[in-house]
Amino acid sequence: MRDLNTQKGFTLVELAIVMTIIGLLIGGILKGQELMQNARVTATIAQVRSYEAATTTFRDKYEAIPGDMKNADARLPNCIPAAECGPTSANAGDGIVGVTTWTGTPAAAIVPWPTQTPGVGSVVPASATAVGAETYLFWTHLLQADLISGVTNAALTSGSAFASGTTHPAAKIGGVFIAGFGSGGKTPGNPVAAGVPGPSGLILALVASPTSAVDAVGATQILTPTRAAQIDRKMDDGRPDTGYVQAFGLAANCFGGAAPYAYQENQTTLDCGLVFRIQG
Length: 280
What we know:
The protein has helices spanning 12-62, 72-75, 134-144, 154-157, 225-235, 251-254; strands at 115-117, 121-123, 176-183, 200-207, 245-249, 272-279. The protein is α+β, with helices and mostly antiparallel strands. It has a 4-stranded antiparallel sheet. The protein has a two-stranded antiparallel sheet with strand order 1-2. A hairpin with a 3-residue loop joins β1 (115-117) and β2 (121-123). α1 packs across α5 (225-235). Residues 101-129 and 192-196 have low confidence and may be disordered.
C-alpha cells in the first residue's frame, strides 16, 4: 500500500516560480496589446497623411479637387463607361467637396455626411448615401487616378452598398474615413462653443461607418479618449477643440463638459471621433 505520508506538494519556491511565470505571461500579453494599439495609431496617422498627399498630387495634376472635378469622365483614366466616375453635379468645380454647411441641416442636393442641428440631433438626408455625392466621389476619383488603393468603385458600377474597405477606406484603428468640407463653424459634437472657429477646408472624419453622423447623439465612436489624444498629440496640438485635428463625441467622456477642454484619458469607453483638416 502506498504511504500517503510520502506524497509531497509544491514548495514555496516552486509556487513562487510558477506565479512569476504566469505574471510574465500576463504582462507580455498586455504589453503586446499595447504595442499593437500603438502600431494601429501610427498606421492610422500614416493613412491620413497619405490621403493628404494623394489629394495634393491630384490637385497639382488636374487643377481640381477629387470628388469636385468637372467632367471627370473625360479627364480621369479608366472611366469607361462614364458612369464609373459618377454624374457631374451643378456644384462641381466650386472648390468644395459636398456643401459649405458644417453644422445644421444642409441642402438636399449634395451633403458631406449626416450632420447635426444643435438641439435636434443627427439628420440623415437621403442624398447622404447617393453614389453621386461628391463626398463619395472623392474616393472614387482618387482611385481612378491611381493615387489610392483599398477602395473600389462598386457603388457606381454595380450598385453595391457603402461599406468599410469597399467604397470608403477602412482606418487601421477601426472605422472608416469620410470626406467633406469644414466651413470654420462649430463641428457637430465638438466641444467648441458656437461661433468659435472649427476646422476649415477639406476634412476627413474618422467615424464608425460611411453613413455615420459626425455628432454625439447616441453614437458609439471609434476611439477611446486616450487613443484620440495620442493621435492628436502626434499630429497636432493635443487639444480636442483647436488645431487641424479636432475631436467630436460624447462630451462628458471624450473631452469634458466645460472649458478648458481636454481629453478625458481616464475614461476607457469608445466615445471619441476625430476630424482632420487635410487641405486649407
